[in-house]
Amino acid sequence: MKKARVLLLNPSFLPRATTTIFSSASQTRLLSHQMETKPSSDSSRYCYDPVLRWDPQVEDYFNKAYGADHFARISKALTRPSSYSCIRVNTVKTTSEAVIEKLTKILNESEDGSLKLVQSDGSSPISKCQIPGLDYVVFVRGSGPHRIEYGSGLESPPKEVLVSRKCAEAVLRGAQVYVPGVLACTAHVEKGDAVAVCVAMEQPGDDEGDWSVNMTRGTTLQGLPSDPFYCERSGLYIGMGTTMLSRAGMFRVPHGVAVDLSNRVFRLPSFYNVLEGEIFLQNLPSIVAAHALDPQKGERILDMCAAPGGKTTAIAILMNDEGEIVAADRSHNKVLDVQKLSAEMGLSCITTCKLDALKSVCLPNALSDSTTLANGDNIGSVTSHSALSSNEEMASGRSEAEKSSSTEQPNGGDNVSQAEIRKNKERLRNGRGRTQSQGGRAGKSQGFPPNSFDRVLLDAPCSALGLRPRLFAGLETVISLRNHGRYQRKMLDQAVQLVRVGGVLVYSTCTINPSENEAVVRYALDKYKFLSLAPQHPRIGGPGLIGRCEFPDGYVEELLKPGEEEMVQKFDPSSELDTIGFFIAKFSVGPKD
Ligand SMILES: C[S@@+](CC[C@H](N)C(=O)[O-])C[C@H]1O[C@@H](n2cnc3c(N)ncnc32)[C@H](O)[C@@H]1O
Predict the structure, then answer these.
(1) What is the spatial order of strands in the sheet that 126-128 belongs to?
(2) Are residues 560 and 521 in contact, defined by beta-carbon separation less than 8 angstroms?
(3) Is the CB of residue 461 below 6 angstroms from any atom belonging to ligand 1?
(4) Which of the chain's termini has less CB crowding within 10 Å, N or C?
(5) Which residue's C-alpha comes closest to atom 2 of ligand 1?
């Protein structure tokens, strides 16, 4: 496979990089270090130098796709958080300047002084994004990896708290160590003790592809080589902190902070619950995906896999909250999350519905057929889009008064089941029920007629192999990666039908897997001759991969053709942009016949 040219990026777009401190031991560490059985020296044990574990065939595939050196860099980058937090400002409510002022005050007043300390040159860690058109994006620079003094040279080893891999990934992003994430702890730990926090990583089981942590919660550690998985935990220390509970408390109480991790390998501010409704923490490529869609005021847009609503709300802000965005997701509870976010951000152009993207196209006659069915044996569970938007089922950020007075019925309003009409009349008379108080219910949609949207975003569910920090990747196999691609192609088949001629379709994923990115684009371009790749603005990601990949089982995967690679945006976690791995393709929809 031919590797595509790497686009050189202008680093001035980004917050200035902080000094990284890698020990020479960490640079030379062998890929197989987690499997070593010999006890390691103190300095290589008490440090953060994880190596991502992949299924061997997946690793082989990625090595071929990217080249071994490049993939090793990607794999390493995935184990670290990005060096900055990216904040999207809700310009409907506030401005970047106001947010920068408030965040500066919050950070200066914060009890955790670590963020102040990282700026050795006296500059602020907060800055406005310099990418043209993205001046409503604010970066907050973090720092790391820091070398932590664990006191390992002392006579007795440091007391330890062992946390689950998922807990560790959250902690690396700035979270605290919460009780449910704690798996094991040294004996006799009391509240207020200094502890080293390390990660319990999945280990290979007896069968191929079988991985597990294999440790009972509450296990006692001694800090000695006789501890379970002692060697395997080498190089997996994420910081030093103070216990907020005794050992017994950690395994007795259901929630709360277990360790106040004051000395971290990576220091990133946690903006949990900060400036709610005014800001949204979002990865830079996700913001760029909303721009790639290029939504215009007054348009009708479908976000097919919308939850939790990060891109939906980004699109709404780009439209200045004028037009209609239908935010769909398969999961009822996740649709509620979109409703909550839209309401919090004060956005009224977003309507939500529960919809399986694989069934999102509904032919006009099928629409009334299934509505008839719904009247009979499945009352109220299937409701057309028109019914939803006119009858409050499709919850939106619009005020109650506005919605109840709305007479707008885009499809003529003739697809509403009588049961739904009765139910809604009652609801309007009685006011919202308890579960409907803040978008407590997500209406189901049975789909939309072909060509009913100006633009469609398909931010597809994927293997998420671009998300970082990631400490383990062994569960995906070449077959599961291929299956993700198959699922995405089926969704794309639906999306293509829903965009009107002259409209735009954006396809995105947060994975580095070519089967879910370039191969899906190849499929779309080969199958739908009316699709063409369209230029994206801004274009700050790198090029896609061209060529083909042949697998040992004979499966052949076609990727992009020469000339197409510069039309997509591939965000490489190992590049200077220091983002998650992400992929964006934008298609123009030409005449369909
Ligand atoms: C990558 S996430 C979307 C993230 C979202 N676009 C954002 O920016 O906040 C993928 C979403 O697809 C949803 N999903 C998975 N399968 C689906 C299906 N068949 N139909 C609709 N949604 C689906 C998941 O529930 C998940 O919320």
Answers:
(1) 126-128, 137-141, 84-89, 279-281
(2) yes
(3) yes
(4) C
(5) 461
Separation CA 534–CA 136 (nearest Å):
25
| Among 81, 250, 275, 251, CA closest to 175 | 81
Question: Which residue reads 């597809």 in tokens?
Answer: 460
Buried-exposed string 64-74: b where 16+ CB fall within 10 A, e elsewhere: bbbeeebbbbb
Q: What is the mean pLDDT of the chain?
A: 82
Closest CA to 205 of 195, 196, 215: 215
Rounded to the nearest whole angstrom, what is the distance from the C-alpha of residue 456 to the centroid of ligand 1?
Answer: 14
Q: Which among 349, 462, 510, 549 is annotated as catalytic?
A: 510
Contact 266, 146 (CB under 8 A): yes
Q: How far is the CA of 463 from the centre of ligand 1 (A)?
A: 12
Rounded to 10°, the helix 310-318/332-344 angle is: 40
- Asked whether the beta carbons of 48 and 265 are under 8 A apart, the reply is yes
In sequence order, what are the beta bridge partners of 354? 329, 444
Q: How confident is the model at residue 388 (pLDDT cuts 50, 70, 90)?
A: very low
**Matching residue, tokens 């946690």:** 270
Q: Judge whether residue 119 has pLDDT over 80.
A: no
Ligand 1 test: best mutation among 280, 284, 330, 506, most atoms within 8 Å of CB? 330
Local confidence band at 399 (pLDDT 50, 70, 90 cut-offs): very low
Task: Assess whether the C-beta atom of 311 lies below 6 angstroms from ligand 1.
Answer: yes
pLDDT of residue 272: 77
Of the chain, the percentage scoring pLDDT greater than 90 comes to 67
210 is in an annotated binding site: no
In whole angstroms, give the CA distance from residue 588 to residue 593: 15
Atom of ligand 1 nearest to the CA of 358: 19
Active site residue 510: yes
Closest CA to 125 of 104, 105, 144: 104
Most confident of 208-212, 218-222, 359-363, 493-497: 493-497
E-assigned strand segments in 234-293? 237-243, 257-264, 279-281
Where helices occur in 197-322 by DSSP H, the ranges are 247-250, 284-293, 310-318
Looking only at Cα atoms, what is the longest distance across the chain? 80
For ligand 1, the distance from its centroid to the CA atom of residue 337, given in whole angstroms, is 12
What is the tens place of the pLDDT at every residue in 545-567?
Answer: 999 999 999 999 999 999 999 99
Please calculate the CA angle 130-131-132 and round it to the nearest 5 degrees.
Answer: 110
Q: How confident is the model at residue 203 (pLDDT cuts 50, 70, 90)?
A: confident
d(Cα 337, Cα 310) in Å, to the nearest integer? 10
Name the residue with the closest Cα to ligand 1, atom 11. 305
ipTM of the complex: 1.00
pLDDT band at 120 (very low <50, low <70, confident <90, very high): low
